[in-house]
Amino acid sequence: xxxxxxxxxxxxxxxxxxxxxxxxxxxxxxxxxxxxxxxxxxxxxxxxxxxxxxxxxxxxxxxxxxxxxxxxxxxxxxxxxxxxxxxxxxxxxxxxxxxxxxxxxxxxxxxxxxxxxxxxxxxxxxxxxxxxxxxxxxxxxxxxxxxxxxxxxxxxxxxxxxxxxxxxxxxxxxxxxxxxxxxxxxxxxxxxxxxxxx
Amino acid sequence: xxxxxxxxxxxxxxxxxxxxxxxxxxxxxxxxxxxxxxxxxxxxxxxxxxxxxxxxxxxxxxxxxxxxxxxxxxxxxxxxxxxxxxxxxxxxxxxxxxxxxxxxxxxxxxxxxxxxxxxxxxxxxxxxxxxxxxxxxxxxxxxxxxxxxxxxxxxxxxxxxxxxxxxxxxxxxxxxxxxxxxxxxxxxxxxxxxxxxxxxxxxxxxxxxxxxxxxxxxxxxxxxxxxxxxxxxxxxxxxxxxxxxxxxxxxxxxxxxxxxxxxxxxxxxxxxxxxxxxxxxxxxxxxxxxxxxxxxxxxxxxxxxxxxxxxxxxxxxxxxxxxxxxxxxxxx
Lengths: 198, 332
Ligand code: SF4
Ligand code: SF4
Hints:
Distance between the termini of chain B: 44 Å
Number of helices of chain B: 16
Strand content of chain B: 5-15%
Radius of gyration of chain A: 20 Å
Helix content of chain B: 40-55%
Largest interface: A-B, 87 and 94 residues
CATH architecture of the largest domain in chain A: Orthogonal Bundle
Strand order of the largest sheet of chain B: 2-1-3-4
Number of helices of chain A: 12
CATH architecture of the largest domain in chain B: 3-Layer(aba) Sandwich
Structural class of chain A: mainly alpha
Largest sheet of chain B: 4 strands, parallel
Bound molecules: iron/sulfur cluster
Helix content of chain A: 55-70%
Oligomer: heterodimer
Low-confidence stretches of chain A: 1-14
Number of strands of chain A: 0
CATH topology of the largest domain in chain A: Fumarate Reductase Iron-sulfur Protein, Chain B, domain 2
Largest sheet of chain A: none
Mean pLDDT of chain B: 90
CATH superfamily of the largest domain in chain A: Alpha-helical ferredoxin
Order of helices and strands of chain A: HHHHHHHHHHHH
Strand content of chain A: under 5%
Distance between the termini of chain A: 28 Å
Shape of chain B: globular
Order of helices and strands of chain B: EHEHHEHHEHHEHEHHEHHEHHHH
Mean pLDDT of chain A: 82
Shape of chain A: globular
């Protein structure tokens, strides 16, 4: 670890022209010691990934691209968005790289760089808009709004399920009651967003 | 009775009412007293982390701060949902491991007059508390109706055994805690090879084809092992495997019908509770036949569609009568 960290700390070491600024940024933005610079390209992550078939680059390739400074290519990739957060790669990685957390960081970065905006990102946004209004999430409303926007042709197939949610599971189609500390929560999130931008 | 701080999570109030009911029903006899965090908020699931890491952790940490304030005596937070559990554990872990990050999150909390001292609370899933604090001996003492003859597939999903910051589980890929618990209830436990594979997570919403394949693998494997039921520890896993089993079947032209239950529902049955009190009947794939094998009669899930007015209340258009759609019978 010490060796790799020292490379990051001195981006212009004798190793030459490598531009590690992208790698550095990802490391900085990921909470904890992500070890993102330690990848040995073994491929264990891609081989473990249940979503690999849907990804345009395997997780291993993403780590190579990060080191190579291929910012646009990484931030345009669908790879982080196909990640289902199963943590198989994370526990199997011989270098203890927090791969799943790095995928979250890459999603943040690609949205902020406006490089990638998809159904996946939109689902997250719809979900969070609810949480920011009510302090709670609300599955039926979420699924309804989201599917109307993105899978309108699938809706006939969804109807029996939606009805089942109401009858079998006794779910309410109404939004939840906001939490009492909604003002407090809004202040916290506002400050957190400022800190993130800083 | 020992006091625990309780973080129910949003699905316990909507899609996973059966989980809520059965958790309440089994905690009492085991001496677990749950004190809900006053005015808790959503943990953000995996969605907020995807958008904005700092607010995502601040959202989670508000719950930790409230729990710490409320804690008197107990420092253990029980979360019954795997995703909520991992989010709470993750925030506590990283705020502790990375003090600069912890300070940043506390700066956000301070805007709402709150603070959390990372590392003060122990974040645990109910399964872990039952196994490691209450103990299987106590569980066995409470069993009055062993689940003899019921073949169960123990299914944990991802976020409980991985990344497991506090090494509470015996293995990150093949842990046997749930197996042990179900065996203590008298069930016949299959050695389920996919017990920690992914249920599809939110891919049911954003990439249904990927999700259906992940669901299919789990259901097909449980079926191969002739499991009567799949047992879950998480509302999201339960929802994906149960509510989407019908759509998965239409997608692959298969006809699986494996009921998916919460581990607490089976604990309740083994403890002699009435099925009605444990949320039976709220599952999509009826558990009636499976449970009748061990002489337990559970309510039939409600089948009839609600009145038209009610369906209009949904933020969805009415079913379209377009060519090729046989949708309304699809789920039956
Ligand atoms: S498993 Fe770890 S070391 Fe191996 S390629 Fe993936 S990230 Fe790199
Ligand atoms: S956590 Fe994401 S990247 Fe890693 S194996 Fe699972 S789906 Fe793939």
